[in-house]
Design a protein that fits this description.
With 303 residues, the chain is mostly helical. The chain contains 10 helices and 2 strands; from the N terminus they run H-H-H-H-H-H-H-E-E-H-H-H. Strands 1-2 form a two-stranded antiparallel sheet.
Length: 303
């Protein structure tokens, strides 16, 4: 049940819209918080040469990498949550403040894959993330999202989750056991799958973000901007997973020398063109607002 005085009361929205709830947003904050804790522990206890493009060790190394993780991918998740919070609280122009702070992440060089040690600029998106988190907490909970499509969401998350298993183990600071995936095997003097954070896992977290928050689209009065953003987020997340997994599990086995191009940074490339087409396809087939949104049960009937 929503806390009194923490945003608009359920049922205030006109035309049959109950207004978005934040249950799914809280779940994502918990997930990303758990990931940040894993990053802190792993980068604090493991030597930098076993990780990826970091130089700091001990607690300093852990805190440094957590700050970068709050930039990417957490700031991208926070932007999506902000869309729900802004509509729920009827925020005006000042919603642009945390949006702009988080969006600094898209500026080239703010997160440099070649040097993942934290810098002062990384404080800016992290501050935006903190503001969105505080706004979320102050906005209550509200109704759960529309369960239609949950089976598809679970299947997609499960299938991609299998692909993400080596990165999940690496995030915890271990190599995945067994012989299905390459992990600890040496490749050009290093382990095939380095320990610590992988952009493939970050892509998976973004896909989960889009799948989870899409449940709230039918409860929004103006869902199209968020629907477009979440559609592109899925395409972008899958693109990063494909790039990372193909290189580690296919190229490093010697099956081919061709690599799926990186999509970490936006660019005028055929791969980014493909992502935009895929995002549009996701929007028009799955996330485009439907005329039956008004039939969504009003939050006033939620318990």
């Amino acid at each position: 049940m929503e806390n009194a005085g923490s945003g608009p009361r359920d049922g205030q929205f006109s035309q049959g819209f109950a207004g978005p709830g934040l249950r799914e947003a809280y779940a994502l904050w918990a997930l990303f918080g758990l990931v940040a804790l894993c990053v802190l522990v792993t980068y604090s206890r493991i030597a930098p040469d076993l990780l990826y493009h970091v130089s700091r060790s001990g607690l300093e190394g852990g805190l440094s990498r957590v700050l970068v993780q709050l930039n990417f991918p957490t700031a991208l998740m926070a932007i999506a949550v902000l869309a729900l919070v802004a509509e729920r609280r009827r925020m005006g122009w000042w919603a642009l403040v945390p949006l702009v702070l988080c969006a600094v992440i898209v500026v080239p060089g703010v997160v440099d894959e070649g040097d993942l040690d934290a810098r002062w600029i990384n404080v800016v998106p992290a501050l935006g993330v903190l503001i969105v988190l505080m706004l979320t907490v102050r906005s209550g909970i509200g109704p759960a999202g529309d369960p239609r499509g949950d089976r598809v969401r679970v299947v997609v998350a499960a299938v991609l989750g299998v692909l993400a298993l080596p990165w999940i183990f690496a995030e915890l600071g271990f190599y995945i056991p067994g012989g299905v995936f390459l992990a600890h095997q040496e490749y050009q003097g290093h382990a095939t799958v380095h320990l610590g954070e992988h952009h493939g896992l970050e892509g998976y977290l973004l896909v989960l973000t889009a799948l989870v928050l899409s449940r709230q689209l039918p409860r929004m009065r103006h869902p199209t901007p968020l629907a477009v953003y979440l559609s592109l987020m899925i395409a972008y997340g899958v693109g990063n997973m494909a790039n990372d997994a193909w290189y580690e599990q296919v190229v490093k086995r010697g099956w081919t020398s061709w690599r799926i191009p990186s999509v970490l940074q936006p660019g005028l490339t055929w791969m980014w063109g493909l992502l935009i087409v895929a995002g549009a396809a996701i929007f028009f087939t799955a996330f485009r607002p439907r005329r039956d949104h008004a039939a969504t049960p009003r939050a006033s009937s939620e318990t």
